[in-house]
Amino acid sequence: MRLLRPILLVVLLLGAVASWWSAQEDVAAPQPLATEGPREIDYYVTGLQVTRMNQSGQPAHRLHVASARHYTDDDTTELEKPHLTVFQATDPPWEVHAQRALASADGNLVLLSGEVLIERAGGATTSPMRVLTRELRVQPRQDYAETDEKVRVETDSDWLDAVGMQAWLRPPSRLKFLSQVKGHYVPR
Region 153-166: what's the mean pLDDT? Predict the structure, then answer.
């Protein structure tokens, strides 16, 4: 009996170590993405251009895409090379370019992915501006956009770098930078 206890203890200890080791290997191994099968496309469009008007009959937004694919499983639309124009009453429009986008079923949310460029030409009271970022979430009906990624803003000879941004594109247009803000401003 005395000899059995140490052997049992060693066997239990080895079993615990083997279980722990096995669990560690499972955690470290890359897991394949879970998929529920291929997504079904119910329509596909190339060279799409859509213009949404405001209440007074003037263009509010214009969207150009190289191609669009609509999926039946979640009613989303995948866009290639989207270019969104957000018109302003008196100032030049905002131009938003991305590599890809995914639009929600109701159109209230558009996720721009890859490199995103937001530009506005200079106007009577505004300087030209370029905003470079990635992974931008856009709420088109509110003319609102946000990102948690790095952002670079350039205007004439000025620049600003930050991490995270909120942008309201409807007048009065404004940008809010969330962290790690640094920049260079040339007095005029």
Answer: 93
